Amino acid sequence: MEDMFRQAAEKNMHKAAPLAVRMRPRTLEEFEEQLSLVGPGRPLNKLITSDGLQSLILFGPPGTGKTTLAHIIANLTSAHFEKINAVMAGVADIRKVVEQAKDRLGMYARRTVLFIDEIHRFNKAQQDALLPFVEDGTVVLVGSTTENPMFAINRPLLSRSLLYRLEPLSTAALGRLLQRALSDTERGLGDYRVELEDGVQNAITGFANGDARSALNVLELAVLTTLPGEDGRRLITLEAVKSVCQNRIIQFDRVDEHYDVISAFIKSMRGSDPQAVLYWLARLLHAGEAPVFVARRIMILAAEDIGLADPQALVIATAAAQAVERIGMPEARIILAEAAVYMALAPKSNAAYLGIEAALEAVRNERVTAVPSHLRDTSYSGAKQNLGHGIGYKYPHDYQNHWVIQQYLPDNMTNRIFYSPSEQEKEKNIWERWHSRKKNDKQ
Question: What fold characterizes domain 368-442?
Answer without folding.
Answer: post-AAA+ oligomerization domain-like (1.10.3710)
